[in-house]
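_Per-residue structure_
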Amino acid sequence: MDLETVDKLLTTTRSVRKRLDLERPVEPALIEDCVRISLQAPTGSNQQGWRVVVVTDADKRAAIADIYRRGFDAYMAMNEASPVTYPSGDLRGEQQPRVLDSSTHLTRHLHQVPVMVLYCIKGRLEDMPPVVQASSFGSVLPAAWSFMLAARARGLGSAWTTIHLFEEKVVAELLGIPDNFTQAVLLPVAYFTGEDFKPAKRIDAGEFTYWDSWGRTR
């Protein structure tokens, strides 16, 4: 494999919010290609219990956007009540204002994004033991990430978001998702503006990688 190309794809697939092209339509065949590729991802016990709901209908996109805005307000209220704080100089704290700004932008314009893609997995996981939850989410989340990678390679941007799950049942009713399926992620999808993306600023991997026992770094 061309590792330079592969590494670039893996390190520059961003959650795109401000740079989604809200005017340019996305061809259905392109979405179908990305979904087909994504379903090559690992699946626990080969169950292939995933389902993918693609939303292009303007009225349904507007309804989901309204739900999302309410969820975003609830999320912000939770943050204000129990704010996440970082030590002075922590990279994550420095990035928070920019992340909040782009998240707010997406919330305001979500109804204009031409395609929404929801990944779901068969089963309700609320009361399941950890092994079942891990296996189920481990079957659907890699597929959704593979969709983002395939989209990025084709000039499409997407954003990983779960804010709609504040009202999961309302979204399920809107889209006809059966009661025995769990929604895992919502991906707004559009062509992106600008030329390219850079790797995100991250804390060095060595700080988060432990060898043989928790907290033991190299």
